[in-house]
Amino acid sequence: MSIIYDEKQQLFHLQTRNSSYLMEIEEGGVLAHLYFGEKIDSYHGIRKYPRLERSFSPNVPESKNREISLDTLLQESSSVGNGDFRIPSCQIRLANGNSTVDFRYSSHQIFVGKHEIKGMPQSFVKKSDQAETLKIILEDKNAQVNLELYYTLFKDSSVIARSEKLINKGAEPLFLTKLMSFQIDFPANEFEVMHFEGAWAREQTIMREKIGKGVKLLGSRRGTSSHQENPSFILTSSATTEKSGDVYGFCLVYSGNHETNLEKDQYEQLRVMMGINSFEFDWKLESNEQFQTPEVLMNYTNQGFTDHSLIFHSFMKNHIIRKFPEKERPILINNWEATYFDFTEEKLLHLAEEASHLGIELFVLDDGWFGKRNSDTTSLGDWKVNKQKFPNGLANFSKKISQRGLSFGLWIEPEMVSPESTLYEQHPEWALQVPGKKGVLGRGQYVLDFSQATVRKHIFEQFVAVLDTLDFSYIKWDMNRSLTDVFSTVLPPDKQGTVYHRYVLGLYEFLEMLIKRYPNVLFENCSGGGGRFDAGMLYYMPQTWISDNTDAGARLQIRYGASYFYPINVMGAHVSAIPNHQTGRMISLETRGNVAMSGILGYECDLTKLSPEEKETIKKQISFYKQHRKLIQTGTFYRLSNPFIKNEGAWSFVSPDKSECLLFYFRKTAIASGPINILKLSGLDKKAIYETDQGVAYSGEELMTLGFYMEYYLPGDYASKRVYLKRRGE
Ligand code: GLA
């Protein structure tokens, strides 16, 4: 990694392990973007982006050159009213009502390490010499506003962490209404965008679309990163495959409203930006106050989607996931789909006993343990143990769980309040609500105003009172609705436009306090499944329940989509009952096991109702998983066949030394007289001979080029196959 500033050419060259990023200070001090792509050893600054006088493209006031226009120039940031008519990355309303700002280069600094982004998740380095940062200060002298652009490069990764900070240097307050975390203007190219859309129980659906003229807006206005649009996207070309081609990846380290703008302009240049959603965003900055955006992680590779994903997976493990990035995760039983709200202590203990016999390691008590919670209509906010269900208390119950050889975990939903609760009776003003207006319910509940320190303190104290009495090793943090009535009763009118973001900052502060208090506890993030599955949450919670959809067929796709940015060892995956509770589909226990064990294995069904044969199958699954857990959870993950577009889904896990490979193959619909499928493996040692657990030997080269013939006849829909390969002599 290196950051070079060529003073003569007024040029910045950011060199990562395998990419180059070039910017130059243009006439009039405009910071222009020049290039992001394949690594250049040295750039001499001769080749300028073509200048051309274009009709109706106004010129930069500081220059007499009519070929220089913000309307056509590739830039690193943009604003309003200055001759750039594309979508802006920064919008401000000054005290006098003026919204025209025009940022120009003022100075820059290059320093070892990384600046701290206070109160927000961010990429970290263990030693400061593992990173280098460029800070460029832009200013608008007239408006008295500074804009700082940050670029951090890492020694062990080609990812660039990018963020911005806006500072009000004037005497009057101003209103910031949009500030993206980055902007890049690409020269004309035939780009495609790949993004991960969805809905509840259908997260991470891959959309790959050609980018046409005009503006494309992706994002979330739900207060959370959402099931509907993951805060990550890829720019690529139609020719790119897993193994070759251009891939630009962008991933926001943030858990609230987000927005991605893509604008293909009149000359087919593409403006790309991402950050906090400007929807309802209106942040008042008093004199000398500043606003810091969250970080975007961006990466370029010319080696296709596999390389892109491997870079993001290891970046997440080394620079985002602070807790247990590589620690083996326990196999759990969760009682939710087994009992829903209908349980007694006795019933749960039977479940735990059975789980223990099968080899399960952790018992998770899901929703319904507190207040009068026998349905989803009541008691959120009253975090006191339900004495009817647990007459001897929860501490006593957790002891009984550990006596049965399992560790204990608990479900919580701290951000919520039920209308029928003591908390809401006493403090209706603690919910996000507009005074005098009936609040919009979602799942029968309101959202607490986590922007209020008093609210957070009260909820935190309630949890500590329960958790401090327990012997526990795991928490599942849930969040089950989108934000509405986003109004805080404690903020003045001119600060209501800050509530969405303040809510997220409040959440981060709470999470930081909680993980500090329980440093050895494993936290699993959940928001009705993957409603808040993002790099921001991974900074606090190293595990995520990526979907409420436990159907193995649906999970095949959800997991596949999620793997573009996120490592497999953050994804909880459970075997559940059939007919599946979300889709009604019947899939064999074998395939349900194979899908779930391609992540962090768990079970979420009534184990006491299983037949002896089913119990035997599960025992075998668990012992196989324990044997190969390290390989699955920390090995290199390769996508081999895309279940969104093919009848077959497949992936493999390869150990870092390439001595082991575990291959999973899933065939969706049974086809009579179908084709023979060939699966080409990835990441093996070319010269080595691999032996399969079915007694056949192949060379690594053969497996990666000629491929593996998958069995022609696999009975029934959603059949699957698992093959373990080991390098000969290991
Ligand atoms: C959400 C979660 C589920 C379960 C329920 C409990 O839907 O995603 O896993 O915990 O809440 O109410």
Structure explained in plain terms:
The structure is a single chain. The model has no long low-confidence stretch (mean pLDDT 97). 19% of the residues lie in helices and 31% in strands. It has 730 residues and is of the alpha+beta class. The protein is globular, with a radius of gyration of 27 Å. The strands form seven sheets. Strands 6, 7, 8, 9, 11, 12, 14, 15, 19 and 20 form a ten-stranded antiparallel sheet that branches. Strands 21-22-23-26-27-28-29-30 form an eight-stranded parallel beta barrel, surrounded by five helices. The site of alpha-D-galactopyranose has 11 residues, from loops.
Which term fits the overall shape?
Answer: globular
Q: Indicate the CATH topology of the largest domain.
A: TIM Barrel
The CATH architecture of the largest domain comes to Alpha-Beta Barrel
Let me know the CATH homologous superfamily of the largest domain.
Aldolase class I
- CATH C-level of the largest domain: Alpha Beta
Domains, number: 3
Q: What composes the largest sheet?
A: 10 strands, antiparallel
Helix content: 10-25%
Low-confidence stretches: none
Number of helices: 12
Q: Give the percentage of residues in beta strands.
A: 25-35%
* Total strand segments: 38
Rounded average pLDDT: 97
The secondary structure category is: alpha+beta
Terminal-residue CA separation = 36 Å
Small-molecule components bound: alpha-D-galactopyranose
- C-alpha-based Rg, rounded: 27 Å
